Amino acid sequence: FFLDTNHKATAAFDLDGKPQIFLPTVNNLGNYRTICSELLQNPETEAFLRETIGIEEPTLKDMINNKILPLYENHSVTDDTEYFKILFRYYNSECPNKEISAYLLELKKVIYLRNLNRTFSSPRELYMPETNFIKPFVADKPQCLIDMDFYLNLVGDEDELKKFFFKLGVYEELYYVTNE
């Protein structure tokens, strides 16, 4: 157990091995629980925490797991602008290839995306808006179409954005079942 900045004892990792306490960053972006600064005045102590215990500064993955995904799980996200940029950036440039499937699986469980009504829907309830075959079927249901312009303005890379959406479960084509 280690003392945090409030002098409360905490374990370095939870039962799943996720970090619960971090080394402080310059601005403590994300408001993480960090090691008491008095403990870090000795360079040997900091080296021990880093090298032996494995306590580090929070990473983008830590921000996603500890701050962003819990907000989605609790349906507390009302403006996904900054969160989506972080989730997409991690997927597109920082997530190791061997972890992408697990990351997408975790996102599929909790994420909801902005539709043309400016409300949120599960990716499995959304279609890409530019598919011509779909337009006649959903013209009066803008909640069925992902707000591609909104997300494109956030990240700029249309091809990678579409790949991301398809992997999350957004439909490219309209599927229907007949009784025949």
Describe the protein.
A hairpin with a 5-residue loop joins strand 3 (113-114) and strand 4 (120-121). The chain has seven helices and four strands. The model has no long low-confidence stretch (mean pLDDT 82). The longest helix has 14 residues, at 60-73. Helix 2 (60-73) crosses helix 3 (81-94). With 180 residues, it is mainly alpha-helical. The strands form two sheets. The chain has a two-stranded antiparallel ribbon with strand order 1-2.
Helix residue percentage: 40-55%
How many strands, which pairing sense, and closed or not: the largest β-sheet? 2 strands, antiparallel
The H-and-E topology, N to C, reads as EEHHHHEEHHH
Number of helices: 7
Please state the average pLDDT score: 82
Q: How do the strands line up in the largest sheet? A: 1-2
Q: Got a strand count? A: 4
Strand content: under 5%
Which structural class is indicated by helix and strand composition? mainly alpha
Question: What's the arrangement of secondary structure elements?
Answer:
Layout: E1 2-3, E2 9-10, H1 43-53, H2 60-73, H3 81-94, H4 100-110, E3 113-114, E4 120-121, H5 135-138, H6 148-155, H7 158-168
Helix pairs in contact: 2-3
Tags for this entry?
4% strand; elongated; 180 residues; mainly alpha; two-stranded antiparallel sheet; 7 helices
Describe, in short, the structure shown.
With 180 residues, the chain is mainly α.
